[in-house]
């Protein structure tokens, strides 16, 4: 039986298939989808990146597209869809608490510009490990971290047969971050697999209960950028332990810290040498006083470090 995970956040306001359409609704939805596709095309074109088959994963933001859409293009614009048949989606949980990683019960993920089927075979493989739980469809639809990647993925993979493996990464402790990373590492070595990791960076301001400020950098937004860039540099080293120490020391409010940590453990334990490189950084606004607030966005591509050397230790 088909179970559709509706697009509930991506600016689509998609119709509920359980009720009849009202006059004009389908036309309005087509107009919204067309506008969204135009925006994605524009951002991807402006990023002007060369697509590479050596890019195996991206880290990209998940805020509303008016805030982070342009930044996200610098991640998704790297993807060469030619030989990829499966995309693993790793996103943090904002509303639902679990100390584990959770799999989707859906068979299809809907987007305004095209639906993406869930790879049920891999879901069963992961279920068989006994390490994952399942999230109910209402939990799945309430979470936006993976959904905001879907329209970009649907756009990039237009005309290609690709399935998705959504994995909600809960409040996973360090030991389990390593466990999930080791478990998923084998999938990284297959170039037909791709990983889309969802995370925003610093959430600064009293409304986020985080106001770290190092005056040596001058303006508050410069301090925030320095803090984020330090974290980005540590992620680029590929060392999950160093990233953990950074988070413990600065408590930077990186909401996708757990998915990023799982990715770092995956790259540490896979046979293919892959290096993360950040390509874009932005802030939703430039904080100048404690009354201000902002969210940071960063995009990265994880690329085979030595093409042709895959599979070697």
Automatic annotation (TrEMBL):
Residues 25-34 have a biased composition (Basic and acidic residues). Residues 1-34 are annotated as: Disordered. Gene3D superfamilies: LigB-like (3.40.830.10). InterPro entries: MEMO1_fam. CDD domains: MEMO_like. PANTHER family: PROTEIN MEMO1. Belongs to the MEMO1 family. This is Protein MEMO1. It comes from Triticum aestivum (Wheat).
